[in-house]
Amino acid sequence: MKRLAPLPLAFIAAPAFAHAGHTGPLTWTLSPDLVIPLGLALLIYLVGWARLSRRASTPVRPTLFLSGWAVLTLALVSPLHEAGERSFTMHMIEHELIMLPATLLLAASGAGGVLAWGLPKPFRQSLGGSWKSPLQRLWKRLTEPVTATVIQAIVMWTWHAPPLFDRALDSFGWHVAQHACFFLSSLLFWWAMLHPRERSSGYGVSAACLFATSLIGGALGALMSFSNSPWYADYAAMGMTGVGLDPVDDQRLAGLIMWIPGGLVHGAAALALAYRWLKASEGGASAAVTLH
Length: 292
Prior knowledge:
Layout: H1 7-13, H2 32-55, H3 63-77, H4 79-83, H5 88-109, H6 112-117, H7 121-126, H8 132-142, H9 145-159, H10 162-170, H11 172-194, H12 199-226, H13 233-236, H14 247-291
């Protein structure tokens, strides 16, 4: 149970990933669509933490999960959420917070087992049923590093295509789908990167995938930054956006945020995992020399 990904959080939080149009002063978004799913996810985790703390010999450390939950919550309910309605730059910052620190921390927490223990007993017992085997096989395939990298890249590029992005800005349902796809694909990606099945070679593959992702996201951000016209109709129609920039400059700044900070996070993670790969390889080589 400890190695399960935090999928319960993903499905609980999915309805929260939507915007509604607002005018006037920026406020905190405390609608039930956001507060209830996020609060429920936190409650399930805390109940699971309390139950496991009484049973497990190794204490459950909640810091990573709670930090990821806090970043996700602030991205969705703080004034940044409403600011994204008025500026593509603010919208991009919200997306980057969801897809980088929030999902990275949640995946690193390995909180699936804790969340499972937070469920009522009948639901928790059903998790051990035979129906789970096909899902486990599917999960194994989806969390292959290359597969997870391709899925996230497709999601990122597809949802930033102007027809789909404009549709998401105009429709509550499509916006739910867009943010849920961003959240789930990045959670899947970070889980695959941080939990390789083969430590010695897996970290090397993860490092390569992270480097590739920095190029993939950087290329999309660069295209936005160098474009001479706004891509998205809703932002183009605003004239001056909420951050005091015209739509073209607002888009260029948003592209730079995707390109540079996003690339730095993926690059730093790639270096960290490359270091782990080298250390694991050195350990394997030393063991082989000892045996001979």
